[in-house]
Amino acid sequence: MKLAVFSHCAIDTITIDNYNYEQIGGPACYCGITARQFKFDVDLFTKFGSDFPKQYLTEYKINFENSESKKNTTKFAISINGSDRTLKLENECDLLDYSSVDADGHLVSPIYHEISDDVFRKIKSDSNFLFVDPQGFLRQKDSQNNIALKKTNLDLSNVNAIKVNPDEAQQIVTGSNDEMMLALQKKGVEYVLLTDKADVSLLVKNKVYSITLPNKQIHDTTGVGDIFCSAFCCTLLKEKDFLWALCFAGGAAQAALESRNVGLQKIPRKGTIQTNACYFYNLVKFRDL
After folding, report:
1. 243-270: per-residue pLDDT in tens?
2. Which CATH architecture is the domain 2-288 placed in?
3. DSSP string spanning 212-232?
4. Where in the numbering of this chain does the Carbohydrate kinase PfkB domain appear (predicted)?
């Protein structure tokens, strides 16, 4: 099976407890490498500069044609305090190119405006199954390049699944968490995932399915949402079972957090994800909405 991933690669300077770690990342890396753990082929649509160590993608047999740019790679300074983090944009690479690709699923997860409206429309028209993490569509920078979210009229037609946190959801729709999930569903999204720190909810038709990640000390949260998205997408495409997809996504996120590793080193192995997924499967709660 094949997953097409649309997102910038990034070089992140991550600050935790006054220690700085320079790491390569971005959903391009986190989603792509996670998908390879699920034995998916990965076609990556991205842009990066000569400062990016592309051999890391080659090592995982990720395809990335026409990705090299004359500009340097998109770069963020990320400051982490528990489950909260602040971002500052330090460099911005070129917009993504688009070419049609025959894939089982498309995963769109921009980090900062690299996917134009025209490219997004083309992806939606070509996709059999489209998962969207809208974070990069919603971000804006101030005069000091600090990142904040802004209200955005995002066209979600032909989007099958979306993952948002409450702050992101409020930029697209309004209301309580339940009201926002319903509003996103009314825009045509079949699977609505809302992650609120340790609490994860999935709205399908008129039911909300939920799991809670165990409360443990949190270290580096960078990329955990991307690992979650890729695990959900791959499991749903392969197993055709949204409950297993929810549990594998939660299991992947939990394994990444428990690793206590920084950057891409936190991406878990499939066996660890599966063990956690079986644990969560017996704890799923559900209610009508």
Report:
1. 999 999 999 999 999 988 877 889 999 9
2. 3-Layer(aba) Sandwich (3.40)
3. E---------TTHHHHHHHHH
4. 144-263
Least confident of 19-28, 114-123, 204-213: 19-28
pLDDT at 260: 83
- Mean pLDDT, the chain, integer: 94
Rounded (5°) CA angle 278-279-282:
85
Distances (CA, A) of 148 to 75, 141, 144, 224: 16, 6, 11, 19
Q: From CA 201, how far away is CA 178, in angstroms rounded?
A: 9
- Does the predicted model carry a pTM greater than 0.90? yes
What distances in angstroms separate CA 15 from CA 140, 170, 226, one per listed residue? 21, 27, 19
Break the chain into its structural domains and give their ranges.
2-288
Token pair, residue 177, equals 């968490």
- Burial zone of 104 (CB within 10 Å; 0-12 exposed, 13-18 middle, 19+ buried): middle
